[in-house]
């Protein structure tokens, strides 16, 4: 992962034009399903920190809106200053306190200051597993005792992810598989064990996005009508039942783990 705020902002600018409203609707709906796990358990007005703000900076639909719709207070961070600035222009309070730029390995927040965290595919851009562990320790540090976290990561068990991670980075870029750096990740079982090592108590886990994004994103680009894009997104969402099958570990693009910091 690049440590440069400007490099990550440049990557986001390159990605933005290729992501359609339908795709943004699809990903926001997937995250809404995860966030609804907290309904009735996370009190109204609780602060939920989101560790990536790409959708908030560039998308019509985004998890921030889902967090607010569920009655919680959204807060966001991103390594890219430009990305954070774009999200801030849409969602920040007048004092700018709800959106900031920081490195997830060194979060500029006080110990025990956050009620809940949605860390959506943020920690899978590092070169080493040690950096993932460092970031998880930071997320643990800023959570209040009893605080909740949903962590999502690339699923190494998915054959497409495994292939992408096995080939040289130059091939990944040349084949236009993804424009950003893809790093280490964790399978679901080892991820749960890693969280337990740090002190988290895992509540539940699974996989999601059971549609190969490398084919879906170009397909959305070919559809001009927003209504048709929404229809395609809804059809893709109907495939999430695949996560309940024994093969779900292979078809899901991402793993998710819900965990709690003990009181």
Any overview of this molecule?
The protein has 263 residues and is α/β, with parallel strands linked by helices. It has one domain (5-260): Rossmann fold, CATH 3.40.50. Helices cover 43% and strands 18% of the residues. The chain contains 12 helices and 7 strands. It has a 7-stranded mixed sheet with strand order 3-2-1-4-5-7-6, sandwiched between helices. The longest helix is centred in the N-terminal third of the chain and has 15 residues, at 21-35. It is globular and about 45 Å long. The two termini are 33 Å apart.
Query: Total strand count, please?
Result: 7
The first-level CATH class name: Alpha Beta
Q: Average the pLDDT over all residues and give the rounded result.
A: 89
Low-confidence stretches: none
Approximate strand percentage: 15-25%
- What is the helix/strand order? HHEHHEHEEHEHHHEHHHE
Strand order of the largest sheet: 3-2-1-4-5-7-6
CATH architecture: 3-Layer(aba) Sandwich
* Main sheet makeup: 7 strands, mixed
Briefly note the structural class of the backbone: alpha/beta
Total of DSSP H or I helical runs spanning 4+ residues: 12
Task: Give the CATH H-level superfamily.
Answer: Vaccinia Virus protein VP39
Instruction: Please compute the radius of gyration using only Cα atoms.
Output: 17 Å
Tally of structural domains? 1
Q: What's a concise summary of this model?
A:
The chain has helices at residues 5-15, 21-35, 54-58, 63-69, 81-91, 129-142, 159-166, 169-174, 188-198, 213-221, 226-237, 248-251; strands at 47-50, 73-78, 99-101, 114-120, 143-154, 201-208, 254-260. It is an alpha/beta fold and 263 residues long.
């Amino acid at each position: 992962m690049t440590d440069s705020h400007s490099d990550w902002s440049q990557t986001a600018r390159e990605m933005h034009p290729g992501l359609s409203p339908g795709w943004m609707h699809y990903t926001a709906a997937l995250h809404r399903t995860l966030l609804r796990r907290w309904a009735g358990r996370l009190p109204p007005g609780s602060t939920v920190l989101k560790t990536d703000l790409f959708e908030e900076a560039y998308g019509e639909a985004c998890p921030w809106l889902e967090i607010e719709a569920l009655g919680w207070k959204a807060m966001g961070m991103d390594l890219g200053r430009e990305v954070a600035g774009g999200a801030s222009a849409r969602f920040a309070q007048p004092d700018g306190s709800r959106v900031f730029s920081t490195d997830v390995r060194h979060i500029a927040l006080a110990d025990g200051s956050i009620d809940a965290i949605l860390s959506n595919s943020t920690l899978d851009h590092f070169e080493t597993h040690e950096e993932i562990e460092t970031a998880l320790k930071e997320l643990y540090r800023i959570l209040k005792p009893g605080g909740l976290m949903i962590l999502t990561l690339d699923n190494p068990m998915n054959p497409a992810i495994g292939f992408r991670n096995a080939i040289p980075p130059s091939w990944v870029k040349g084949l236009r598989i993804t424009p950003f750096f893809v790093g280490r990740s964790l399978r679901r079982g080892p991820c749960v064990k890693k969280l337990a090592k740090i002190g988290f108590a895992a509540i539940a886990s699974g996989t999601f996005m059971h549609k190969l994004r490398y084919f879906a994103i170009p397909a959305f680009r070919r559809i001009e009508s927003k209504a048709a894009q929404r229809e395609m997104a809804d059809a893709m969402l109907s495939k999430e039942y695949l996560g309940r099958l024994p093969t779900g570990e292979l078809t899901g693009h991402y793993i998710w783990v819900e965990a709690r910091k003990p009181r």
